[in-house]
């Protein structure tokens, strides 16, 4: 079946100043999982070019999946030519109220801050610096294939983690429809997950997804078969651009 794309496309924002640190080691194993619920970032397609966002950017999970370009700016640790790395938001960098915002509490509100996976940080600056000034901008998430829906729960409670979202990369709301139901509004659980307390077992599932950034709505018809299984991921034939 041919891939369907949302009409219109995400437009990159202007460059803005921020700061960046890193977490984890060169393997990025410490970045797996995270507050967005993406789990193994290799199997879900995000890899090691990821970042945890400060809370003002994370927006209670609505910032999950957003894509950014980051370049080091104005520090001796910056690599020559100010190379750009593209990252996806997969985690939260929580505030540290025990430390001042300009000395260790880098993710305290209202700071805009990226705590990058070390392999991503290493592409723009010498990691020995610890923290560097950066310029950043939001960009469209370039994805191959359709949105993916990882199903959890049971026949009476459905929890869906949404990955591989193109365009703005983020989600503001979701609805689910079974063969025997109307559209059911799903509540935001945490990160990039949404839930519905309905009897949906044994039904073909369709999903309607609202983009947080563009407010576009996309419908993924028959995204999961009637014999869907909790723990599996199903790919739609549509995506945002």
TrEMBL record:
Occurrences of domain Expansin-like CBD (ranges): 156-236
Keyword GTP-binding carried by entry: no
Residue stretches making up the Expansin-like EG45 domain: 33-146
Major subcellular site: secreted
A Gene Ontology BP annotation from the UniProt entry: plant-type cell wall organization
GO CC entries: extracellular region; membrane
Superkingdom to which the source organism belongs: Eukaryota
CDD domains registered for this protein in UniProt: DPBB_EXPA_N
Localization of this protein: Secreted, Cell wall; Membrane
Signal as UniProt keyword: yes
Lipid bilayer topology: Peripheral membrane protein
Keyword entries, A-Z: Cell wall, Cell wall biogenesis/degradation, Membrane, Secreted, Signal
PROSITE patterns from the UniProt entry: EXPANSIN_CBD (PS50843), EXPANSIN_EG45 (PS50842)
Known function: Causes loosening and extension of plant cell walls by disrupting non-covalent bonding between cellulose microfibrils and matrix glucans. No enzymatic activity has been found.
Family as reported in the entry's similarity comment: Belongs to the expansin family. Expansin A subfamily.
Protein name per its UniProtKB record: Expansin
């Amino acid at each position: 079946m041919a891939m369907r794309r949302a009409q219109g496309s995400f437009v990159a924002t202007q460059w803005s100043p921020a700061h960046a640190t890193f977490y984890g080691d060169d393997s990025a194993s410490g970045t797996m999982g995270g507050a967005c619920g993406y789990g193994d970032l290799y199997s879900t397609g995000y890899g090691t070019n990821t970042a945890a966002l400060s809370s003002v950017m994370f927006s209670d999970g609505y910032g999950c999946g957003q894509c950014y370009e980051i370049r080091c700016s104005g520090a001796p640790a910056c690599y020559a030519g100010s190379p750009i790395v593209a990252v996806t938001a997969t985690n939260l960098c929580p505030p540290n109220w025990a430390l001042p915002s300009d000395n260790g509490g880098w993710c305290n509100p209202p700071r805009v801050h990226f705590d990058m996976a070390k392999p991503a940080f290493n592409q723009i600056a010498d990691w020995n610096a610890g923290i560097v000034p950066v310029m950043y901008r939001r960009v469209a998430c370039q994805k191959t294939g359709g949105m993916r829906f990882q199903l959890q729960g049971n026949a009476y409670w459905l929890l869906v983690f949404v990955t591989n979202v193109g365009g703005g990369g983020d989600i503001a709301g979701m609805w689910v429809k079974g063969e025997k139901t109307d559209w059911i509004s799903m509540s935001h659980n945490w990160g990039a997950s949404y839930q519905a307390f309905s009897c949906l077992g044994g039904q073909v599932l369709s999903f309607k997804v609202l983009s947080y950034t563009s407010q576009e709505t996309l419908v993924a018809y028959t995204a999961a078969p009637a014999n869907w299984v909790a723990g599996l991921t199903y790919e739609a034939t549509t995506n945002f651009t």
